[in-house]
């Protein structure tokens, strides 16, 4: 198993090379520059323990307003996209149950991300593919501000899918694989 430092370094490289490099999230570069992204690696691979870490992350964000977004990285236990989706469903349930709906929202990334109705080799899936399964916690208030201040936020996913499709499967696959090849930023 890789060290947590390596997993975080690879995730940061993916953010720089893919998320920012392809402009999949026009808000990410600002948060990287501000150093307002928190990273945690959950190595146990057990859904119950991951949900405990997720709840702790909600609390940490509540107490630390300098954290804009939180990435819970899951290098073990959720390699199958189906098992990850089951965890994500439980995570959203926890968000509601603990009263954080409207405070935070979750975004999802997985090495085998598959949009409903798409083929596994569709380049558009790479807009949500990451080196490891990730649950991202976003502040709802920040999402609202971004939507209000950025023109046509609803077109971002469509623009991203068009970009990935135009670049093609080989380009997108290489870009994701390269994020795991370098262990340091």
What count of helical segments does DSSP give?
A: 7
The stretches of 5 or more residues where confidence is low (pLDDT under 50) are none
Q: How many strands, which pairing sense, and closed or not: the largest β-sheet?
A: 4 strands, mixed
Mean pLDDT reading: 93
The overall strand count is 4
**What is the helix/strand order?**
HHEHEHEEHHH
Structure description:
The protein has a 4-stranded mixed beta sheet, sandwiched between helices. It has one domain. α1 packs antiparallel against α7 and α3 (47-63) packs across α4. It contains 7 helices and 4 strands. The two termini are 20 Å apart. Helix content is 49%, strand content 12%. By secondary structure, it is α+β, with helices and mostly antiparallel strands.
Briefly characterize the structure:
With 185 residues, the protein is an alpha+beta fold. The chain is 49% helix and 12% strand.
Jot down its keywords.
185 residues, alpha+beta, four-stranded mixed sheet, 7 helices, globular
SSE topology sketch:
Elements: H1 4-20, H2 28-34, E1 37-41, H3 47-63, E2 69-73, H4 81-97, E3 104-109, E4 134-139, H5 140-149, H6 156-167, H7 169-179
Parallel strand pairs: 1-2
Antiparallel strand pairs: 2-4, 3-4
Helix pairs in contact: 1-7, 3-4
């Amino acid at each position: 198993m890789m060290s947590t430092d390596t997993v975080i370094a690879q995730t940061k490289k993916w953010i720089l090379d893919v998320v920012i490099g392809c402009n999949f999230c026009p808000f990410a570069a600002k948060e990287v520059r501000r150093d307002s992204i928190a990273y945690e690696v959950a190595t146990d691979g057990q859904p119950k323990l991951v949900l405990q870490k997720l709840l702790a992350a909600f609390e940490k964000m509540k107490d630390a307003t300098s954290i804009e977004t939180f990435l819970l990285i899951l290098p073990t236990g959720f390699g199958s996209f189906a098992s990850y989706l089951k965890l994500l469903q439980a995570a959203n349930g926890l968000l509601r149950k603990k009263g954080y709906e409207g405070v935070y929202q979750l975004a999802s990334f997985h090495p085998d991300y598959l949009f409903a109705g798409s083929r596994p080799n569709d380049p558009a899936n790479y807009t949500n593919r990451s080196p490891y399964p990730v649950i991202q916690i976003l502040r709802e208030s920040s999402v609202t501000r971004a939507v209000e201040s950025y023109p046509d936020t609803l077109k971002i996913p469509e623009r991203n899918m068009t970009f990935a499709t135009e670049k093609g499967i080989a380009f997108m696959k290489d870009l994701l694989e390269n994020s795991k090849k370098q262990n340091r930023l």
